[in-house]
Amino acid sequence: MPSSIFVRIYGGILLVIAAVAVCAYFFIQAVNAHRADTYRENMATGIFRLIALGVSRQQGDARTAWLAEAAQLMDSPIAVVPPTREQFSEEELAHLADGRAVFRSYEEKNFADIYSRIPGSPELYIKTRMAKVSEQQAKAMAVFFIEELEHYAGHEDQRIQELQRYFPYPVLLMPLYKAGLDKDQQARIRRNEVVLVLKEGSGTRNSSLRIVAPLPAQERVLVMGPLHIFDWMPMQLVIMVALAVLSIITVAAYFIIHPLESKLKKMELAVRRIRGGDLSARAQVQGSDEISQLAHAFNGMAEHTQRLLDSQREMTRAVSHELRTPVARLRFGMEMMADTDDAEQRFDQLQLLDQDVEQLNQLIDEILTYAKLEQGTPSLKFEIMDLRSLLHRVENETVALNTGHQIQVVDEGSDVRIEAELRYLHRVLQNLAGNAVRYAKSRVRLSGGVHGNSAWIRVEDDGPGIPEKDRERIFEPFARLDDSRTRASGGYGLGLSIVQRIAFWHGGSMEVGQSTDLGGASFTFRWPVRQALRNARVLKKNGDNTL
After folding, report:
1. 415 neighbors 388 (Cβ within 8 angstroms)
2. Cβ atoms within 10 A of the Cβ of 19, count?
3. DSSP codes of every residue in 71-101
4. Average pLDDT over residues 123-135
5. Closest listed residue to residue 319, CA positions, set 327, 330, 308, 331
6. pTM higher than 0.70 for the full model?
7. N or C: which end of the chain has fewer CB atoms below 10 A?
C-alpha cells in the first residue's frame, strides 16, 4: 500500500518529537539528579567542614561531648568513622582530601549520609545521617561558624576568607545597620538569636535565604548568603535542551523530507531533459509514495510519448513508401487513358485504377485503425459472447475467399462464454486467419477456449513458420521478414501490429510459436475472461479511467 506523503512527514516528525521528548525528559532528569547531588554536596561542604574543624580540636571525652552537642544542634546523629568502614571510592577520597563533603543519597530510605574528613586526622571522618533539612540546621551552621571565629579573635575577616572556598555562597562580617534587617530582626540579633531572612520571589529561581548571626561583644554580624534554593529548571538548562531538541528535530526533518525533495529534483531533471529533446530521459525514482507513483506515471507517459513519436516517424516513412506504388500506378494508368482512344482499353484501365483506389482505401483504413489503437484510449464496449460462434463466423468468412485451403475449427463442443470487445476480437481472429491463409500450404486451424481466468484463441497453419529470431519483429508496423511479403502476397505489414495493440487494450498478450501438429506458425491471443474485474483492478491501481 503506497504511503501518504502527509503521513510520512507528519508521522515521521511526530515520532521524532515523541522520541526527542522522552529523551529530553530522561536527559533533564539525569542532569538534574547530578546537579542536585552537586548542589547538596556544595551546601553541605561548608557546615560539615566547620563540624570537622570543631571535632579536630577536641580529644577523648571532650570530643564525645562536643559531638553529642553538635548532633543535638543538627538534629541528626554525628559519629567519627574510619575510611575502611565506609569504602570510599577514589573520587570520594579526592573530595574528602580537598576538604569537601561527600553526599550519599538513599532516596528509597528517605535519608542521606554526609561525610567530611577531620583535619589533622587523615584516617578519621565524621558521618552524619540526615533525614530532613530544617530551619534548626541552618541556625546551627551559623552557630558553628561563630564558634570557629572565636578561635581567631581579631582575625575574623582573614579566617572567613580562608573558609570561603568551602561555601558556595558569600560569607561576610558587616555592621548591623547594613544587614538590611527590620526592627524586629535587629532586636532578635541583640538578644543573641540567629535570624533567617527569606526573600521570596515569583519562583524558586528568585527565592533565597540569608542567615544573620551576632558576633559576641561586637557591633558586627555574620551574614551568610544569600543561599539560593535549588532551581530544577534553570534558564541555561531550558535554553540548552530547547536548542538540542530543535537541532535534533531539524536534522530529523531534513532526513525525512530530503528523500522526497531528491525525488522531485530527479523528476525536474528528467522533465528538463525531455523538454530539451532527450526523449529517452527517465526519472530514476524508487519507492511507493505519491512522488514515486507520480514518477512512475511520468516515466510511463514519457515511454508512451516516445513510442508514439517513434511510431509516428516510422509510420510516416512507411506510409510514404506504401503510397508511392499505388500512386505511381494511378498516374501511369491515367497517362495510358490519356494516350488511347480505344473504349475497351479505357475500361480496362478504369478497372485497374479502381483496384488501386481500393488498395489505397484499405491502406488508409489499416493506418487509421492502427493509429487509433496506438495513440490513445479506444472506446471499448466489452460484452459477453459465445467464442464458438465467433470461431465459426471467421471460418465461414475465410472459406468464402475461395483460397482452396482447408479451414478447421476445433472447439469444446459447447458454449464458451467470454467477455471482450466483439469488433476488435473479430478483427484479431480475422487478421490472424488471413495471415495463415496467405502463408499456409493447405491447412489452417482455428481454436479457442477458457483456461482458469484466461480466455484464448489460436490460429495455426502448415506453412513455413516464423523464425524464432523474427517473432518479436513481426509486430512492428510495416515489418516484412523477406521479399515474399510483396503486394503479390497482399498486406501492408500493419495487421499484426493492430492485433498486438488490441491485445494490449484487452489486458492480454500475443504468443508466437510453432504448431506442434501442423508444423507452421502458431499465433495465440490470451486475455482475462472477466474484463470488468480487470478494469476495476486497473482503475484502482491507476486512479483514473485508463480503460
Report:
1. yes
2. 13
3. HHHHTS-EEEE-HHHHT--HHHHHHHHTT--
4. 86
5. 327
6. no
7. N
Spell out the residues 6+ positions from residue 286 whose beta carbon is closer than 8 angstroms to its own. Answer: 292
Report the sign of the C-alpha dihedral through residues 460, 464, 468, 469, in that order: negative
pLDDT, mean over the chain: 82
* 3-state DSSP assignment of residue 544: coil
What's the pLDDT at 222? Answer: 93
Q: Tell me if 198 sits within 8 A of 209, measured CB to CB.
A: yes
Please give the Cα distance from 128 to 110 (Å, whole number).
Answer: 14
Neighbours of 225 (CB within 10 A): 19
> What is d(CA 350, CA 342) in angstroms, rounded to the nearest whole number?
12
Please state, in angstroms and rounded to a whole number, the distance separating the CA atoms of residues 227 and 210: 6
CA triplet 148, 153, 156: central angle to 5 degrees? 65
For 104, list phi and psi in degrees, rounded to 5: -115, 115
Asked if 387 and 455 count as a contact pair (C-beta separation under 8 A), the reply is yes
Percentages helix, strand, coil for the chain (3-state, rounded to 5) are 55, 20, 25
Given a cut of 80, whether residue 209 has pLDDT beyond it is: yes
Q: Which residue has the cell 534558564?
A: 235
- Residue 514 and residue 286: Cα distance in Å, rounded? 40
Question: In this predicted structure, what is the pLDDT of residue 360?
Answer: 76
For residue 504, which phi and psi values (nearest 5 degrees)? -60, -45
pLDDT at 539: 42
Per-residue pLDDT band for 541 (boundaries 50, 70, 90) equals: very low
The pLDDT, as a whole number, for residue 514 is 92
Instruction: Please spell the DSSP secondary structure of 173-199, one letter per residue.
Output: EEEGGGS---HHHHHHHHTT--EEEEE
- Check: CB of residue 527 under 8 Å from CB of residue 508: yes
- Kindly tell me if the per-residue pLDDT of 130 is higher than 70: yes
Residue 486's pLDDT is what? 40
Please check the confidence at residue 536 and state whether its pLDDT lies above 70.
no
The three grid cell numbers given for residue 231, joined into one nine-digit string: 532551581
273 touches 281 (CB < 8 A): yes
Distance CA 119, CA 56 (A): 6
